[in-house]
Amino acid sequence: MARRKFTDVERKLMKDIASNIRQHLSRCKMSQKELAEKTGLSTSVISDYLNEKTLPTPGSVQAIADALGIKKSDIDPTFNDLIEISELIQLPIVGRISCGNGSIAFEDIEGYEAVPRDWVSSGEHFFLRASGDSMIGARILDGDLVLIRKQEDVENGEIAAVMINGEEAVLKRVYKHDGMIVLQSENPNYPPIFCPPAEVRIIGKLIMNVIKFN
Questions:
Q1: How far apart are CA 162 and CA 212, in angstroms?
Q2: 94: domain range?
């Protein structure tokens, strides 16, 4: 499986993050090796961030910010996004999804999360709780709250909530290749899953990962 292509937005963010790290390394007169030692990250990971090859996980951003004595938003500007909220709506946090009689049903709703109406301007939306570490390369960690827009199909390479043979919904990057559905994790420890289309049900597209810092 070829390495996925980053979107223009992701590439712009990687460029900004790399520039911010370099700026603060220079200010602190700190080398890449010293940053790696202070953060516990490998020198190759630091190099990837500086060479705009990948996006840092939220945990890496926190570790780098702590090592440099700055705020997370000084590294990753998305942590400083302020939204002017005019109206909030409540969306269910779904614990389980079933597809009885061909229709999707939400079960084990653990609660509701208030979000700006602008986030969900069209379509039906709900939250799922991410489980495991298979999507850490997409900055989705175990326990994260992910916003899903209900839809039956996605474009190649998009992340979706999918069910395989009616089992529990999982988050995977979806590809369609040679008449098969390929479900790709964002962790090299997990091989791609190849399924006939009849065995896969796309529940919805990942819209965003809502990260909370208590």
A1: 24
A2: 88-210
d(CA 31, CA 66): 15
Q: Is it the case that residue 183 has pLDDT exceeding 90? A: yes
Q: Token match 């939204």: residue?
A: 83
Distance, in Å, from the CA atom of 19 to the CA atom of 110, rounded to the nearest integer, reads: 41
Q: If DSSP states are collapsed to H, E and C, what string results for 136-184?
A: HHHCCCCCCEEEEEECCCCCCCCEEEEEECCCCCEEEEEEEECCEEEEE
Looking at the structure, do residues 97 and 200 belong to the same domain, yes or no? yes
* Residues with a known catalytic role: 134, 172
Whether this prediction's pTM lies above 0.90 is answered by no
Q: How many CB atoms lie within 10 A of CB 144?
A: 18
Any domain includes 1: no
Per-residue pLDDT tens digits for 85-126:
457 888 888 877 655 555 555 667 888 888 888 778 788 899
